[in-house]
Specification:
binds adenosine-5'-triphosphate; binds magnesium ion; alpha/beta; 234 residues
């Protein structure tokens, strides 16, 4: 469903993505692992239209979206829950969720927000609280819930487990699997390579803007390079 070929992205003279080719098929969880500064966030931001591609193509559901503005990309069915939980800190939980549906104009938005509140009871409890005063884990839930409110077909997740306590990490990974089972495909950027590879179907390893390894999650879990560099094994 997502088909990226020969993608290059620059920040001024910094050549952050150097010819990335990557696919996500319908119903898959695909994980992208890589060290700090490898270009993971840049790739997600380029897909989302937040950062412009210099060359290469991004196709989604057979349509070339490489140069579309970000709201059109959301409309086409791609939604990103950003790194660092960039929610609107001075708006309420309720308002943040409503903003997640900003590209929609159907009649189901209210019902979808209520359904999201049922799915994340903590958000229901904190409905009128300023989002910036939520805990890190709660903000992460809000960021994912907000991304889901655009009713995406493909969800881009940037380090959803970052900084969370182990039990919350567990629930986030469980949630990601539930979202996929609901029919949303997922491109997951994670520092926690072990957990990401445990739930992913396929994986890519990114090093300084280049994909250096790709394969089934099982293949990558067993690769010497991945075990040494990303899983801390010998
Ligand atoms: N706005 C920017 N301006 C200039 N350079 C940038 C900008 N954003 C990112 N970079 C550079 O691009 C490279 C890739 O950054 P990116 O944030 O995509 O890495 P990442 O893989 O997400 O890292 P992390 O795991 O730390 O989140 C880095 O060298 C970074 O310094
Ligand atoms: Mg990043």
């Amino acid at each position: 469903m997502l088909h990226i070929e020969g993608l290059h992205t620059f920040y001024g003279h910094v050549h952050a993505l150097r010819g990335i080719s990557l696919n996500v098929e319908e119903g898959e969880i695909v994980t992208l692992i890589g060290s700090n500064g490898a270009g993971k966030t840049t790739l997600l931001n380029t897909i989302s239209g937040i950062v412009p591609a210099a060359s290469g193509t991004i196709e989604f559901l057979g349509k070339n979206i490489t140069t579309l503005p970000s709201d059109q990309i959301v409309k086409s069915g791609i939604s990103q829950a950003p790194e660092g939980r960039r929610i609107f800190p001075r708006s309420s939980v309720q308002d943040n969720l409503e903003m997640g549906a900003y590209t929609r104009n159907d009649k189901n938005i209210k019902a979808d927000i209520e359904a999201m509140m049922e799915r994340f009871p903590i958000l229901k409890e904190r409905r009128n609280q300023m989002a910036g005063t939520l805990s890190g884990g709660e903000q992460q839930m809000l960021a994912i819930a907000r991304a889901l409110l655009s009713r995406p077909k493909l969800l881009l997740l940037d380090e959803p487990s970052l900084g969370l306590m182990p039990t919350l990490v567990q629930s986030i990974f469980k949630l990601i699997q539930e979202i996929r089972n609901d029919g949303v495909s997922i491109l997951l950027v994670e520092q926690n390579a072990r957990k990401a590879l445990a739930i992913a179907d396929r994986a890519y390893v990114l090093e300084t803007g280049v994909i250096v390894l790709e394969g089934s999650a099982k293949e990558l879990r067993e690769s010497d390079q991945v075990r040494k560099v990303y899983l801390g094994e010998k």
